[in-house]
Design a protein that fits this description.
Layout: E1 2-8, H1 12-20, E2 27-33, H2 37-49, E3 58-62, E4 71-77, H3 81-94, E5 96-102, H4 110-119, E6 126-128, H5 136-142, E7 152-156, H6 161-175, E8 180-194, E9 201-211, E10 216-221, E11 229-234, E12 237-242, E13 247-250, E14 255-257, H7 263-277, H8 285-306
Parallel strand pairs: 1-2, 1-4, 2-3, 4-5, 5-6, 7-10
Antiparallel strand pairs: 7-11, 8-9, 9-10, 11-12, 12-13, 13-14
Length: 317
């Protein structure tokens, strides 16, 4: 089976997608698109480090969107959020795409979500890379928890609250296919701070989410002395989840083991699932947009109140 791919955005995450192609059994022709020559150089180094030069796959690196193929099986858009909508439109105008996978957060403006939806033909065959439900640790844990339970999730001291909370929102929402009923930013702390990536910002404090089935989610972050912790509770039971160790321990003594796979490990299974089954375990664009609308809107209100009253976007990536 031959497959044609386009990876737009050759940064940290885009290059991990590329590395993941090393194990693909299909013959891959992949175009890596990024306006930065340096980003492409680093992506090429990572491809070689992963053993890519020893495979039969063909990789083409380009800074120009006009050099993208006319037809691809899969387009992965791993750019930063501020240019994602524009990048998708550029690709859609030049290339016929069978499947799309978009990185999170989808956009900085709620209005850009409509642009993404339209550019991907109404979101058909389009998924968003919030993959926690596909990690084996959570897949195995799901077998241990009755589906009718009301769950209370806590993710504390996360890094990059504003850009990463969407992962936990997606997990908690899709675990029971429950819709987001409310989101509170009341416990966010003060003004936003510059993030590690120039031109982007983050915020500290806590975000609270409530879902249609009564479940809840807390995601919190602080500036210093972080000690990441996550837990899941229901009735009188508490599961402590140790993602880095691949272990979940229940207060009743049960233990679940699994992994939180890296993107480089998820790429090939994702591609093969799409090509062979026309489906994957990621949320569809429509599912993710429902989460992003409420999420971005609430963050924008807080950003306007603390940073810039005239802002029409949230500077997160």
């Amino acid at each position: 089976m031959d497959a044609s791919l386009l990876i737009a955005g050759a940064g940290q995450l885009g290059s991990r997608y590329l590395q993941g192609l090393v194990t693909a059994p299909a013959s891959i022709h992949c175009t890596v698109l990024d306006p930065s020559e340096e980003a492409l150089r680093q992506a090429k180094i990572r491809w070689q480090e992963a053993g890519g030069d020893k495979t039969a796959h063909k990789i083409v690196y380009t800074t120009q969107a006009k050099n993208a193929p006319k037809i691809v099986d899969l387009a992965v858009v791993a750019t930063t959020a501020n240019v994602r909508a524009n990048t998708v439109v550029q690709i859609a105008n030049r290339t016929t795409v069978r499947y799309w996978v978009l990185e999170k957060v989808l956009a900085q403006r709620p209005s850009d979500l409509d642009i993404l939806h339209q550019a991907t033909n109404g979101g058909q065959r389009t998924w968003v890379n919030t993959p926690m439900l596909s990690w084996t640790l959570y897949k195995n844990l799901r077998f241990e928890i009755p589906q009718d339970r009301t769950l209370h999730w806590r993710y504390e001291d996360v890094r990059g609250l504003a850009c990463n909370a969407i992962h936990y929102l997606d997990l908690a929402s899709r675990w029971h296919e429950a819709s987001l009923e409310s989101m509170s930013t009341d416990e966010l702390i003060g003004q936003w701070s510059p993030s590690t990536r120039t031109g982007f910002y983050d915020v500290y404090g806590s975000l609270h989410f409530n879902f249609s089935n009564g479940s809840s989610l807390l995601v919190s972050s602080k500036e210093h002395d972080r000690q990441f912790r996550c837990s899941l509770s229901y009735e009188n039971l508490v599961w402590k989840i140790h993602e880095s160790d691949g272990i979940a321990e229940c207060s009743d003594g049960r233990i679940v083991r699994g992994r939180c796979e890296l993107q480089s490990e998820l790429t090939t299974p994702l591609i093969m699932s799409l090509l062979e089954r026309d489906a994957c375990l990621l949320p569809t664009l429509d599912q993710s947009i429902k989460q992003h609308v409420a999420y971005l809107s609430a963050l924008l209100v807080h950003y306007r109140a603390t940073m810039d009253a005239s802002a029409d976007f949230v500077p997160i990536t």
